[in-house]
Design goal:
Undecaprenyl pyrophosphate synthetase, alpha/beta, 261 residues, globular, 11 helices, disordered C terminus, 6 strands
């Protein structure tokens, strides 16, 4: 991998892709299923915990790449509702890792200089209290920013999100706050996660690493029914490179146009 990074042809191709992306139609919302941390660690003879830590480093890099090419929303699938079924030791490690990363985001000069708003989306109340508190601190510290939105999906399930929105709408109808005939796509979207006045918009591109070709209950409302491109690639999340990211963005831009990336 280090040889590829020093290869002049690789560097030229990366710059070419970036220039075409900047000249093309903006890709405003990228959603990523970060798959393969544990399999990468197994392949390399590392602990699964180190695999998760290396994956978290990749997430930070991707956030920087999004700023470079003008992505407005980056949504990362960090912990699903199904992940609660993992063993207690791994969950505790993941919760501590996520807590530390939120703390770093809260203190990050880069986050504040680029005015990146950080938000958690999902059933946050299911998470440990110390993690919830760190999330709140980071959200409060970046609440006024709007250059880019970094949405971290935690305790998230797409079907659960739709159920929660339906229940909230039903309660508001029952209380007379809205009428049933007022319910439309925009109103439903405003009741999805997070309910802070700025909804997660429709997805332009879903990326999944690790070789699988499923979207795994991720942002079903925001992605389905929309002209959303899907980019499935073989690298495990810790080895996902900038060139992979740029190829995915370019694929979304050229989808249906017949152009070559």
């Amino acid at each position: 991998m280090s040889f590829i990074l020093r290869n002049p042809a690789y560097t030229f191709y990366e710059r070419l892709l970036k220039s075409r992306i900047l000249a093309g139609v903006p890709v405003e919302h990228v959603a990523i299923i970060q798959d393969g941390n544990r399999r990468y660690a197994l392949q390399k003879g590392l602990s699964r915990f180190l695999g998760h830590s290396l994956g978290a480093d990749t997430s930070e890099k991707v956030s920087d790449w999004c700023l470079e090419v003008g992505v407005k929303h980056l949504t990362l699938y960090a912990f699903s509702t199904e992940n609660f079924e993992r063993d207690e030791l791994e969950k505790r490690y993941l919760f501590d890792l996520i807590k530390n990363k939120f703390g770093e985001l809260c203190r990050s000069k880069k986050i504040h200089a680029n005015r990146v708003r950080v938000r958690a989306i999902g059933r946050v109340e299911m998470l440990p209290l110390d993690l919830q508190e760190e999330i709140c601190r980071t959200e409060d510290a970046t609440r006024e920013y709007e250059t880019m939105y970094l949405n971290v999906a935690l305790a998230y399930g797409g079907q659960r999100e739709l159920v929660d929105a339906a229940r909230l709408l039903a309660r508001q109808i029952r209380e007379g706050k809205i009428r049933a005939e007022d319910v439309d796509e925009d109103l439903i979207a405003s009741h999805l996660y997070p309910q802070d006045g700025i909804s997660v918009p429709k997805v332009d591109l879903i990326i999944r690493t690790g070789g699988d070709t499923r979207t795994s209950n991720f942002l079903p409302w925001q992605a389905n029914g929309n002209e959303c491109a899907a980019y499935f690639c073989a690298p495990y999340w810790p080895e996902f490179r900038k060139i992979d990211f740029l190829r995915a963005i370019r694929t979304a831009q050229t989808r249906g146009s017949g152009q070559q990336a």
